[in-house]
Amino acid sequence: MTIKGLGRGFESLIPTDLVDDEFDLTITEDKNISELKKLKLDEIIRDENQPRQEFSPEAIDALANSIKEHGILQPIVVTKEDGKYKIVAGERRWRAAKLAGLDKIPAIIRTLDSQNRLELSIIENAQREDLNAIELATAYAKLKTQFNLTNENIATKVGKSESSINSTLRLLNLPEDVKKIMVKEKLSEGVMRPLVSADEKTIHKILPKIIEEGWTARKVERYMASTKKQSSATAIKQNAYHKEEDKLEQKYHIPVKITGRSLTFKCKTGAELQELLGKLA
Q: How far, rounded to the nearest angstrom, does the alpha carbon of residue 259 sit from its chain's CA centroid?
């Protein structure tokens, strides 16, 4: 059974909807070294060296309520040490599960050695020059969600700037079918980056042009800027006279519409029109 948002085939071992196993280059290795189990909460301990030491009580409470309604959708990641399971990633889920009154929680179990090997493997893959941008973004997402690394940590490990990591990760916000098209058509990160914040309709409208006409990143940026400017201008025009329309409607008790340079009074009957003309005279 495939769980939507958690990948395919190895979906039960993927603790985030950002890591799609179709683009995960270490999926086979991960499957071989990982074990998925339901662990008792009292068998699990937090990592005292975890960089994140503060957790918002409101956020934990909200997550606990979600867990009560939907259960744990994403396993935590742990390593076994001294008969206990130390959290590598997912402390918020563990805390919220306790608050929700759960007895057990799904967890991906790795040895400390295999965890370290997998991290190195992902980093090595992320440094390859033949990766497509979605595979690269997936590698970063896996480091972020299964190894508790910040974008700054990832940047240091793969030898890139933090802004570069941020930009690449944002590609995972593209619709699923668009990511597949991006890989199939070998579209660059630069070309696709301006589309990340666009709605699906706009993306699907422009994508064929990018492919068929070989648009550059610069041309895509200019097109999106133009589209945004036109949308803003339209919105301003549509909203510019709302106050004036309201005032006129209150004064004459008739629907009023201002469009461009035209002022329209919408009378329902001839008598209503005659009454309006008398007021305007």
A: 38
**What b-and-e string marks burial along 186-225, b requiring 16 or more CB atoms within 10 Å of the CB?**
ebebebbbbbeebeeebbeebbeebbeeebebeebeebbe
Are the CB atoms for 14 and 21 separated by under 8 Å? yes
φ/ψ bin of 71: left (φ > 0), alpha (ψ from -120 to 50), beta (otherwise): left
Q: Pick the catalytic residue from 81, 91, 129, 272.
A: 91
The yes-or-no verdict on residue 232 having pLDDT over 70 is no
- Angle CA(241)–CA(281)–CA(245) in degrees, nearest 5? 15
Measure CA of the first residue to CA of the last residue in the chain; give whole Å: 75
Report the alpha-carbon distance of residue 127 to residue 129 in Å, rounded. 6
Q: What is the DSSP string of 256-278?
A: EEEETTEEEE--SSHHHHHHHHH
The identity of residue 114, as a single letter, is S
* CB 60 within 8 Å of CB 95: yes
Catalytic residue flag (residue 58) = no
Q: Which secondary-structure segment (H or E) carries 107?
A: strand 104-110
DSSP 37: E
Give pLDDT tens digits for 138-183.
Answer: 999 999 888 888 899 999 999 999 999 999 999 999 999 999 999 9
Contact 31, 160 (CB under 8 A): no
Q: How many CB atoms lie within 10 A of CB 163?
A: 10
- Write down how long the chain is: 281
- Please name the residues in contact with 151: beta carbons below 8 A apart, sequence gap of 6 or more: 140, 144, 162, 165, 166, 169
Tell me, what's the pLDDT at 81? 84
C-alpha–C-alpha distance, residues 112 and 122, integer Å: 15
